[in-house]
Design brief:
This protein is mostly beta strands. The chain contains 1 helix and 6 strands; from the N terminus they run ββαββββ. Strand 4 and strand 5 form a beta hairpin. It is globular, with a radius of gyration of 13 Å.
Amino acid sequence: MKTKDGDIIELCWDGGPEAFYIRGHIPFAKAKEILLDYYEPMDCKVEEPVHKYARWSCDARVEYDHSLMDYNDPGRGRFKITEFKRIW
């Protein structure tokens, strides 16, 4: 699925999401607004957002053939994301 800046990146998780991702380095106040609008009502708490980079990785040995790998630094094939880690 192609996303643009400001779009939620939807992922499948075993046992619930560990984090929430928005495409692009979105200003934190706007990112929080996007997250709360998308997941209304928000049934969990999240940490303050962080700007990171991500890329899609392929692995045919697992149930889902693509996974989102996140990184602190830019690199080849990586795109900007805004990450909200879930507080357990």
